[in-house]
Structures are given as C-alpha cells and as structure tokens.
C-alpha cells in the first residue's frame, strides 16, 4: 500500500479518499487545493524515483500547465502599461515582422491565433539556448492568415510571449516570474530551474510507446511540425532541459506551487480583479486547426469546455501532457494543482486521476 502524507481540512476527507484510490495505481504524485486563499488540501505520496520517496517539496515537470507562467507575466506587464496587447508584436520585436507577420498583435500570441505554431527541426542545444529558436520564429511564415483561426501553439507559445516580455522588460519570463511573483509569494514553481534544485525533481515515467507514436506521425503534417521540433527526442527530465527556459512546457513545481499561483491570481495578489476577469473571458473560440478539437481561449489561459471535470463558467487554467493540471474557479474560490510523475499511458482511455480528485473537491464544497 502506498504511503500517503499530508493534511486535509475538515470537510475535505473525500479528496483524501480519492487521492488514496488514485495512488493505488500511481507511482508518485501530489495534490493541493486552496479555497478562498486558504490551503485545505496538501497531500503527497508514492515514489519520486528509485529509493526516493515523494516528499512535500518534490518537484515535477508539468508540461503545458507551464503556460500559466508566461501568460501571467505578460498580463502583469500589460497591467503596468509596459505591454500593449493590441500593439503589433513588431513594436517590441521588430525582426518578427518578416514574412507578413507585421500586423500580428500581442494578444494573438495569447489566444493561439498568431499562426506560427511550427518550427523546422533543430538540435536540442538550439532549443535549450533560446536565441536560435527566436531566430527561427523571426523567419517563420504563418501557417494560415493570422487572426482567422485558432491553432494550439504547443511549444512556440512560450517563446513567442517570452521574447516579447524579454524585449519589453529585459528579463526572460522565467526570471521575471521568479523575481516578481514566485519569490514574493513563496511559490515553488520554476521555469528555468536552478541547478541547486535538481535533486528535488522526481523521475518522469514516460509511456513505453510514446516515442514510437511520435515517430510514426506524418512529418509533413502541421500537427507533427507543431509537436516535434527537435532532431532528437525532447526529454524534459534531463538537467539541460530543466535548467533552461522552454516557457510553454518545462515548468517544474510542487502541487502546492501550482495551486498557489492560481490562488494568488483569484485572490488579487498578482493582478487586479478586472484584469483577471478580462483575461479569463472568452477571447477566441472555434475549432482548433491543429488539434482538431473545439477550443476556447482567454488571454493566455485555457478555458474548459463543459465536458471537462474542471468546467464552470468562470474557471480558467492549463492541463499538462500526461496528467498534470492547474486551474482556478473564482466563482467557488477553488485553486487546484495536481502533479504526477507517471504520464498517462493509454490514449484510448481517459485519464481519470485528476478528474476524480476534482469531483471530490466539488463534492466537498457543495
């Protein structure tokens, strides 16, 4: 039986029961919930790797749940008047204007409408180095007429927003986030992990057929060119990939750090309430031309569809590949983070781990 540690506030015992059920089939994970700014669930258990139990401060890569970081940074700069979301990207980043990209406003980077989701495959060293990726984005040709469709910018989202942030502020999004948000709020959430923290990162358990599935994809298809941009497999568990900034996918955090970010957002500790309300209102909606599913986007945050367990008219957040998720619901005051190290393996069946926890949270507050 997997050892589970941590605490739940009275009334949230259902979440502890759901977590115990999840951990019966899990390797290692943690879950955290805040309600109106107070932490009511803080649970962890399992193994972080060979001979390493999962601890309260164990970190894990959360893939696309990372996107909350560059989104938040851009919104802070917009609120301060440093960024104008309606200004062309080229106002801050002149080289981006090449090949018909001169009219793309900053807000389309946040809503996945910029039409620059794909890159030619490049060495991993270039991906880790930032500037080679930025040069390729400058030379990129839009895949469709910008602003006319939504297409999930799975990897380029972070670099596109990140370079605008860097040009406007002088700091990369990971550095800005650490200095201006994470450190003051004591959030254990990192984009560009310090080398001193590497020993806290749990091993990543990847489904055995994942690389083969990616290799079998049509290399000319837009979805493939969006998801596969490196000449070698991009392994986000290695030190070089953890300590650089890939701001769409290489965030590393505890569940408490992820949930804590969302608690601070809905608690008006990062953004003014009106700024957040605007950012979490539907800014773009329609079929995603890359992923082939319906999409709803705020300004930098994903908005759930009614079929998802974290749906409410006011919820916003980001799920991550393999099972991680962070979100908040201002209507209920809930902020939630779930961080597993075993990526969901069976794509034919839904991943119910976070869903069961979310249902338990919702049942606890009714």
UniProtKB/TrEMBL annotation:
<dbReference type="Pfam" id="PF00144">
    <property type="entry name" value="Beta-lactamase"/>
</dbReference>
<feature type="domain" description="Beta-lactamase-related">
    <location>
        <begin position="16"/>
        <end position="356"/>
    </location>
</feature>
<protein>
    <submittedName>
        <fullName>CubicO group peptidase (Beta-lactamase class C family)</fullName>
    </submittedName>
</protein>
<dbReference type="InterPro" id="IPR012338">
    <property type="entry name" value="Beta-lactam/transpept-like"/>
</dbReference>
<dbReference type="InterPro" id="IPR001466">
    <property type="entry name" value="Beta-lactam-related"/>
</dbReference>
<dbReference type="InterPro" id="IPR052907">
    <property type="entry name" value="Beta-lactamase/esterase"/>
</dbReference>
């Amino acid at each position: 039986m997997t050892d589970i540690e941590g605490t739940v506030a009275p009334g949230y015992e259902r979440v502890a029961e759901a977590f115990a059920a999840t951990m019966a089939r899990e390797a290692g994970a943690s879950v955290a919930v805040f309600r109106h700014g107070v932490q009511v669930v803080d649970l962890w258990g399992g193994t972080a790797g060979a001979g390493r139990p999962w601890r309260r401060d164990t970190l894990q890569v959360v893939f696309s749940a990372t996107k909350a970081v560059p989104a938040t940074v851009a919104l802070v700069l917009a609120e301060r008047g440093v960024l104008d979301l309606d200004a062309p990207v080229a106002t801050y980043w002149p080289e981006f204007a090449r090949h018909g990209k001169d009219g793309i406003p900053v807000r389309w980077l946040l809503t996945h409408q910029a039409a620059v989701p794909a890159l030619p495959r490049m060495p991993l060293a270039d991906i880790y180095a930032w500037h080679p990726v930025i040069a390729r984005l400058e030379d990129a040709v839009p895949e469709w007429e910008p602003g006319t469709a939504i297409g999930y910018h799975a990897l380029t989202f972070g670099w596109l927003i990140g370079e605008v942030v860097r040009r406007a502020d002088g700091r990369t999004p990971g550095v800005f986030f650490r200095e201006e948000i994470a450190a003051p709020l004591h959030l254990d959430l990192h984009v560009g992990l310090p080398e001193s923290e590497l020993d806290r990162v749990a091993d990543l358990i990847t489904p055995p057929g994942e690389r083969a599935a990616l290799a079998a994809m049509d290399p000319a298809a837009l979805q493939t060119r969006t998801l596969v941009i490196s000449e070698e497999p991009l392994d986000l568990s290695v030190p070089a990939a953890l300590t650089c900034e890939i701001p769409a996918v290489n965030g590393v955090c505890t569940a408490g750090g992820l949930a804590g970010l969302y608690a601070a957002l809905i608690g008006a500790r990062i953004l003014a309430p009106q700024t957040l309300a605007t950012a979490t209102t539907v800014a773009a909606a329609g079929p995603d031309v890359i992923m082939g599913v319906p999409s709803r986007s705020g300004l930098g945050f994903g908005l759930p569809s009614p079929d998802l367990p974290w749906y409410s008219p006011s919820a916003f957040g980001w799920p991550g590949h393999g099972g991680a998720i962070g979100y908040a619901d201002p209507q209920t005051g809930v902020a939630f983070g779930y961080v597993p190290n075993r990526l969901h393996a069976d794509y034919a069946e839904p991943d119910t781990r976070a869903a069961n926890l979310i249902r338990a949270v919702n049942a606890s507050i009714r």
